[in-house]
Amino acid sequence: MTTRKRPNILWVSFEDTNPFYGCYGDPVARTPNLDRLAAEGCRWTRCFSTAGVCAPARSAVITGMYPTSMGTHHMRTTHRDAAAPELPTPYSAVIPHYAKCFSEYLRAAGYYCTNNIKTDYQFDPPLTAWDALSREAHWRNRPDPQQPFFAVFNLDDTHESGMWPEKCPEPAFDPDAVPVPPVFPDTPKVREALARMYTNIENNDRLLGGLLRQLEEDGLADNTIVFHWSDHGPLPRGKRWPYDSGIHVPMIVRWPGGLEPGGVSDALISTMDLAPTVLSLAGLAVPAHMQGCAFLGPDAAAREYVYATRDRYDTAYDRVRAVRDARYKYIRHYRPDLPYLLWVPFRNRHPIMQELWRLHRAGALNGPQALMFQYPRPVEELYDTETDPWETRNLAGDPVMAQTRQRLSGALDAWMAEVGDLGEIPESEMVRRWYPDGRQPVTAAPVFVPICEAGPGVAPAPQGGRFRGPVQLQLYCATQGASIAWALDGDPPGRWRLYTQPLTLPAGTTHVRARAVRIGYAESAEVAAGFTVTAAENV
């Protein structure tokens, strides 16, 4: 790392995708670009998300902290649910003051960071997280073509809603040719939904290929580390659940000169390991508060377990915790009195879910197909994912498996204690702690503090002024954990720089604007001032 130019890093994530890819052995998938990427890099067979649903999982990716550790574990916080107006939403999660979107660390180190365009973090993305956050965000827009970049593209054709008939009326796959998982009934409606899923993966694969071609056109492929991953799975009894069909996701990395082509790793990794991995590859220190574990770069280390959670998702409260090693999965239900299928209107729009309900009403579901309708839930579930990949045979009560169950249960207890599980308290109480008067706290406005011979940083200068050079300008915000964005007159519209250290002001007049934000707080008011720096004899 010390002898090479700092690598560029490209993320291409798919929404709601298990590894139904040719390179992972799927018999019907058409994924030539993903297969090529895997052939030129390495694919991980045991990568798992922290949650089977979008926003909690993505909050872990962007911070390197578990959702339950920072209060981002309830799905859908930033808007009101018309079906359940009594929920304590909307709110923006106020994560610990020391936690940041990890892209800030890259920006501070000189990386140009872009996101096109998905955030969905359970909090409003801070102004300081990205150089560009839009449909137009692209590494090609960086002001200096020699500047290293971290570019994120989220391809959303594969979202579960893409399996609704109106989103994909004519799938490109033959419904009769797709495999039907044993947890679903084999009906035309189920097969059509699965054919749409494969069609949407093929569409995303085509878009991924376009981004890879752009890298090659720009002459950047040899010094760009490409990551492909997904946030969670797409199917009922998968999405919103910690079964492998909910949390088992693809992970493919192409790192020219760093990873042997065609590699396959069975190492256990989590998507929350992405943040420390990227920092490690960029040659940056991994902050101590990050709970993820780098799986590449100088800070790489091995995992013994991955963990996953389920809490309130949309309208439905629940609490489930899970731990998995390379083979066995342990799931604990804190509300075994609840049915598996709580009321989630969005999920009930899924064609496969509608088929499950229809056949359940008719008493026509058999064996694994009926698992989500069993009542009561078991307090514990234990699965051998090697012999039972769809997790249909619960071994928690098997005396032969008692030692494995106890080991995994103990690992789960230790993890919950280590990270501090905010699922212990009601969501409404958690929100009151953040918004004690029912209002979102507001970040304090930045303050300008000139440091020069006449004024050694003792007093702020909110209106600016005239100062004898040399002058450095310190920006200060009284809100603990806040980040400051600043800009100069003449900067492109919408471009905000990340403040990291005092600005050296040149001779003449400089107009500075600044805003501050702490994650979960409302952004500060914008402040602006002009500073005129003169030679000593002109003062």
Summarize the structure.
The chain is of the alpha/beta class and 539 residues long. Helices cover 20% and strands 22% of the residues.
Annotated CATH topology of the largest domain: Alkaline Phosphatase, subunit A
Strand order of the main beta sheet, please?
A: 4-3-5-1-6-7-2-8
Helix-strand topology string: EHEHHHEEEHEHEEHEEEHEHHEEEEEEEE
Fraction of residues in helices? 10-25%
- What do we call the CATH homologous superfamily of the largest domain? Alkaline Phosphatase, subunit A
User: How does the major sheet shape up?
Assistant: 8 strands, mixed
Number of domains: 3
Q: Cα distance, first to last residue?
A: 49 Å
Stretches where pLDDT falls below 50 for ≥5 residues?
A: none
The oligomeric status of these chains comes to single chain
Which descriptor suits the 3D outline? globular
Secondary-structure content class:
alpha/beta
CATH class of the largest domain: Alpha Beta
Count of extended strands: 20
**Portion in beta strands:** 15-25%
In angstroms, what is the radius of gyration?
25 Å
Number of helix segments? 10
- The chain-level mean pLDDT equals 96
CATH architecture of the largest domain: 3-Layer(aba) Sandwich
